[in-house]
Amino acid sequence: MTTALLTDHYELTMLQAALADGTAHRHSVFELFARRLPTGRRYGVVAGTGRLLDALEDFRFDPDTVAWLRERGVVDDTTCDWLADYRFTGDVWGYPEGELYFPASPVLVVEGTFAEAVVLETLFLSVLNHDSAIASAAARMVGAADGRPCIEMGSRRTHERAAVAAARAAYVAGFATTSNLEAGRTHGIPTAGTSAHSFTLLHDTERDAFTAQVASLGTGTTLLVDTYDIEEAVRTGIDVAGPGLGAIRIDSGDLPSLARRVREQLDGLGATATRIVVTSDLDEHAIAGLAAAPVDGYGVGTSLVTGSGAPTSGFVYKLVARADDGDALVPVAKKSADKASVGGRKWALRRRSATGTAQAEVVGIGAPPHDDGDDRSLLVPFVEGGTRVHHDTLDDARARHAAAIAELPAAAHKLSAGEPVLETIFER
Amino acid sequence: MTTALLTDHYELTMLQAALADGTAHRHSVFELFARRLPTGRRYGVVAGTGRLLDALEDFRFDPDTVAWLRERGVVDDTTCDWLADYRFTGDVWGYPEGELYFPASPVLVVEGTFAEAVVLETLFLSVLNHDSAIASAAARMVGAADGRPCIEMGSRRTHERAAVAAARAAYVAGFATTSNLEAGRTHGIPTAGTSAHSFTLLHDTERDAFTAQVASLGTGTTLLVDTYDIEEAVRTGIDVAGPGLGAIRIDSGDLPSLARRVREQLDGLGATATRIVVTSDLDEHAIAGLAAAPVDGYGVGTSLVTGSGAPTSGFVYKLVARADDGDALVPVAKKSADKASVGGRKWALRRRSATGTAQAEVVGIGAPPHDDGDDRSLLVPFVEGGTRVHHDTLDDARARHAAAIAELPAAAHKLSAGEPVLETIFER
After folding, report:
1. What residue ranges define each of the domains in chain A, with the CATH number in brackets?
2. What is the pTM of this model?
3. ipTM of the complex model
């Protein structure tokens, strides 16, 4: 399926007008960045890069697509003909997936003719705005869980295809598993799940349901114990499965106190290795509030897939430089007071102390400074002359993310609202 | 592309266990409803029905899908074999698209064997939770715009495929156009757009840019005037296009005062018919705040595609009745204090006064009351014996939505936080 129409109408009308006066062929640099982090956030997490590069490969105006544009009169024949031959032949650099970003970090830099770069605006923004919002929320949850596994189970609360991307982004940020089977197939993410309340209600008794589940899925399964009375369900569960039951799940009520009572009850029944998984509208704050409770895993749904209050990242895609008639690259920027941007093609590095702690996000124009060995350069090549040169796996991104988080000063892990943990410094 | 894996892992493990003990074949009724509206909202808008019915038709476990489930050991061979033959053969009723809903409205009722209905849970929830959240936000914006057109332009701020669905949902709720070209192709929604700041910055001068745009797109185009200085841009725009210029767009600054100044300036230049379109992080409150300003259209992005603070609808999908061994239908419900539900297959009607004003949402179990002519029955058949019988167009949904909104008491249109405008009454 082509991704070429996941594009705003105005990109093609701009293209038409620029083809007509010849400026479409001016060499241009577009930059994707966030003016600010979502309110109160300490850092952002880049996710979606792999999907973005896949989507770029599928960005083709095939005959059906061109026919539709022509028939609907979206753009003129000259533009339709140009689009029919569209191939991106430029360069793309970016912060690799899993990396952290801060206000004004040049998360993606796209260089080519105006024509070939302008039409990618909406697609690139959609992918990165969504996936990074999810990963940024997920990273806070993983931090709050402090080593206990987080299970992604929010598919039902978001668009059915966004759900697959959300599972992927959560995995980049350290989630252990997802409930989403398509995320398992498409992205190789481990999937997990056992049963819902409907399974218990389907049966004449809770004991019948637990017996059926254990018989079919084994004693390692997770029994959901809050359909009727939790204490009775735990007793029944251990009676049916024996003390080797894998886990129980609690999906309602006051989770910290319930977890303690159930832990005591399980231990009293000899089920000392039976894990307790909690779900029920958890977010990073609820997870942190369960740190002292005997909980072995967190299932997170709604708050994950909606970015826990920040469902989009606020990335914009701006022309920052373009050639003049003499092919010299001219920095350009909008002047509006509340939406100003900085012109010019950027470099970016994370300034680090000699002991490896991140100290600042440094962004500049022109030649990057000599790397003294402590700092870390952030932009890597994704596409060179139209050819994709970046093929990181999800596990690469996951490892990179863990390393980038480990570099941050301790204040990064505060869940309370505050300023970005690193200041962005412009050097010119 | 199959939709069958847009499904949570646990649906298939439940299926496996229920196939093993025979309960999978018990006749069952699932209900999709919201326990509450998003905080402060007066009503909700159902959207996504058409997409849901399309997705149901594509819900097939094709050989590749079954092979993946088998290879990954998601479920056992018996279950894989059953899934390979999967066809939904049951019945679905629901609130048709565009209709309003309230807490506990039975928005969708799915009846069939447990096996065939349980596997649809995640897909159905994903579609309706997303699309209804967008439509519910869009309806408030359309109401606040009070007849002025709203333009959907949020694609870049949400997942690239969710963007297409968001444009569709906004159209159901009364938006005039979308920027999203795929929404134009897939759903036939009118698309619109002209140019961005990058087009102005591409050119050596703003005059060059406007000249190129007007030459290519005609004097009816919309010029974006806030790249540098708005007053100068308006003067240049009229100088280039003449007083017949279609529209100008302002995307930053204090919009009410800017709109007034620009209107005066345009009128002074003889451009009395040139429209003023405003964009820049608008939501329903900002739109309402512009009611007295000389504005001719609102472009809405981020707040629309993120549901204006409520990015998901909170719909759940619950087993409410199932057969016992004797095939009698038994109402069932979870007992948990904070997540209780009401068992039994429901009917639903909107109680209306003799003058046609909606007064209450009435939901009951058993035989529906005799319709006195004022009330309106809400559930319509979507699928009968596995065959889709509902084929409403988007324009049908749009007209239905407008009619349902017109029925509401005036308090529905308050944008301030409050209670649902209709009380939901249970009758048994």
Report:
1. 9-134+310-427 (3.20.140.10), 145-308 (3.20.20.70)
2. 0.97
3. 0.97
